[in-house]
Amino acid sequence: MRAPPVWRRRVVAVCALGLGTIGVFVARIVSSSSNRDSSSSFVVMHIFWGGGNPHPSNSSSTHHQTQRGLRVSNEYERKAARPIGDGLYAHEHLVDVALATRHETTTTPREACRWRVVRKSDGAVVSESGGERAESFEALYPSPGDYVVVAESAVTTTRHDVAARRVRREIRTLSRIERERYLSAIHTIYSTPDAAGRRMYGEEFLSITWLVREHLYGAASKECDHWHDDAGFATHHVAITWQFENSIASVDPTMAAHYWDYTIDAAEYGDAWATSPIFGDAWFGSANPNNADHVVDAGRWAYVGVMEHARSYSNVTNPYGLLRSPWNTNKIPFVMRSSYVLGKFAGGFSTFPSCDEFSMALLTNAWVGTTFNQLNGGFHGPVHIMTGGYWGWDPAIWGAKTETGRLNPISFLLFAKFLWRQGYARCPDKCSMDTPQDQCRCSCPTEIVGGRSARDVLNASGAFDLNAFVDVKGISYDDILEGLCGIGFPGEMFTSAAPQDPLFWPLHGNAERFLQYARILEAKGVLRYDETWGYDHSADLASDTGVVCDWTDVTGMQMPKCVPATCPGHREDDLLPFDNLFPGAEPRVFTNAEFFFDIINPASNAMPYVYDTLTSWPGCDGGILGKADDLQFLKDDLEDEYNDANTSVPAVTVSATGLFNENEDAGSRWTAPLRNMSLFKESKHPGVAFFHLLFKTLAIVVYEFSTMFTTNFVLVCVVCILLLAFDFWTVKNVSGRLLVGLRWWNYVREDGTTEWVFESTEDMSEIGATDRRLFWVGLYAPAFVWGFFLFMAVIKLNIQWLIVIIAALSLSSANIIGYTKCSKEARQRLEKFAAGGVAQNLVGAIGVSNILSGIGTIMGAQQQQQQQAPGGAPMRQPTMSV
Question: What residue intervals traverse the membrane (predicted)?
Answer without folding.
Answer: 709-729, 774-795, 801-820
